[in-house]
Amino acid sequence: MRRYLEFASKSSAIVSTLIAVLVLFFLVFPNLPINGELLDVKSGYSFEVAMNSLAAYGPEGRTTYLWISLLLDTLFPVIYVTFFAGVIYRFRVSEGTWWLAYIPVFGGVWDLLENVQISLMLINYPDLTDTQVAWASTFTYLKHWIGFVYLGVTVVVFLITLTRKTFTRFRARDTSS
């Protein structure tokens, strides 16, 4: 796992995965031809909301969503996990905090499990149970919260590193004067 984190923390990996995340998140996913908003992007949903969304997609939209979920939305967690884990690992506060890079990995695995839940709903529609929708909604809800955690960790480790470098430069300039 450390090899993967070392790879992910290289500048080329960080830049390329950031570009891929931005393209998928802002250009591809919002423009999918499914006749509605992806269930994945909702913070959670009730049985009624899920059924209405699945009905609105129509047969073609549900088929498209299923293929997207199985292909693109399987690749997407790999890409964003590589980005966030790489940034957290690269800008870790100390050698002892490298394990924080596992948080986005956990989030990516959770996202893949959510994709399974949503794919099952797309396949089984209209024969869904309250329990199945509740599980899928819970996975979606928790995916978003895990995402907030690793986004927060990413921002904190980056800001700590930036602050340390800034103060180091000021100290170096003050001692050389």
Layout of SSEs?
Elements lengths: L1 H7 L2 H18 L18 H24 L1 H19 L11 H23 L5 H47 L1
Can you tell me about this structure?
The structure is a single chain. This protein is mostly helical and 177 residues long. It contains six helices and no strands.
Radius of gyration: 20 Å
Form type:
elongated
- Mean pLDDT value: 94
| Number of contiguous helices | 6
* Measured distance between first and last alpha carbons: 45 Å
Structural classification: mainly alpha
SSE succession: HHHHHH
Beta-strand residue percentage: under 5%
Low-confidence stretches: none
Q: Could you give the count of β-strands? A: 0
Helix content: over 70%
- Sheet bearing the most strands, described? none
Summarize, please.
By secondary structure, this protein is mainly alpha-helical. It has helices spanning about 1-10, 10-30, 45-70, 70-90, 100-125, 130-175. About 80% of the residues lie in helices and about 0% in strands.
List keywords for this structure.
single chain; 177 residues; mainly alpha; 78% helix; 0% strand
